[in-house]
Amino acid sequence: MTKSRSLMAGKPRPMSQIKQLLRLHSQGYSIKAIARTLGISKNTVKSYLSKLESVNIEPQELLQLEDPALENKFHAGNPAYKDPRYVHLKGKLDYFRGQLEKVGVTKKLLWEEYIQTFPQGYGYSQFCFHLHQQLVAARSSSVLVFQPADKLMVDFAGKPMHYIDKQTGEVIACQVFVACLPFSDYAFAMAVPSQRIGDFLYALSCCLNELGGVPKALVPDNLKSAVIRADRYEPQINQSLDDFANHYNMSVVPARAGKPKDKSKVENQVKLLYTRVYAKLRNRQFFDITSLNEAIKEKINEHNQTRMQRKDYCRQERFLAVEKPLLLPLPEQHFELKYYCEPKVAHSGHVCIMKHFYSVPYALTGIRVKVVYTRNMVNIYAHGKMVAVHIRSYLKGGYSSVKEHLSSQNQAYLDRSPNYYLQKARSKSEDLYLLVEQIFQQDRYPEQLYRSCDGLFRLHRDSNPDKFAKACQIAIDNGIYSYRFIQKILENNMTDHQDEITQPQTLPAHHNIRGKDYYIQSTINFLQNEN
Question: Mean pLDDT of all residues in the chain?
């Protein structure tokens, strides 16, 4: 086989060889001699010489042109694009591209409509080829150039990883957080229980600690933990993520919804991790998320230390040499996740946060306050000012109260003590004081004793002072220190018979006569047993 036949049919010759052809032709060489000298076929020589006549330019002028300009003279373009069929189709390509976006519209349907209006047009395959060329041209994009330590792209892998619960044998799925510095392509990954804001920010803080610094901007996906409302121009960032970014002194620039190219580097890292992490760990079993993350970290280190194609360095070398020195320093304090709510102050002067009650100044009763709480503290704001600070409590149904926040009535309630009730009883009557004094000598729960005293104060307020004093004396004499006992005595007017009990007997003495004092004493015994 000759050299000329080994060349691809129809392939343009190098312009340096064509210049030699022109030079030999101008020197008077024959077609056969030119073909033999240059090692090309006679038909190729004839073809270029015929094109030389059509361009109507002297060979010496063509020899002065640069190779691209000379190639344009001999190969002015594909003749197919001068075809009348293409000229007709070219004006409709934009229309066809727009129609393909509609529901149910296919290339086959468009071709059928096209051929009905232009029967001499292209067949289906050529129609699809030109339409495809139009679609490819419409999807052109610019090349992104990344700066070192500028952005950190983050995302969650679409496929979870798993570990086995030792106690139940349940296979528990974990979400895989992936991050990437696009300049060096340095990657980070770890498994977390979910994509919720707490797990997301925890993984992000672990990533920054692993990098040993902070980039200027964070580029997350549009997950709810990062973006509350997606928008092409001004997305609404989750407030907790904003707090995180402010703590680490970086900006948040979410990727546009439906535009994966905005975070193309981390998208590519996810694909690589499926091969270099997922696949390599597929036959291993893990029994907790900690051991799973240790294995992921090991494989990620191997991935970062693997030499990249068409480059003489690995990702880790690029990161350590160029990018890490430019990262901003980490803050001295760890980030603490903040939660926000706007509860209404109840009539008790407390707000309910996670089923626990915290006091605020009583004057704020009935209005809504802003609460910012963390794992350890609860800060309450009203009218732009902090009005209360509490240590976070996890006791459900409990109360965290500051005495100064409460009303005078509630403060008095908190100030209750035996001494408080004794002083209050002394100010009302001596008999009541003696009875209260006996009450606090009982071995009973303090709250019950306080309520008994409150009931006695109410009876003192609503009853005749003399009758109340006699009732107290009866209770003391009989050793019954009960609110209900005093109440029954007053209701049954038993204080009126107290003097009669002490009078001498007027009836003749007889062992069958019981007398009034027996029945009064029986009533007292009954009330005593009832209490």
Answer: 82
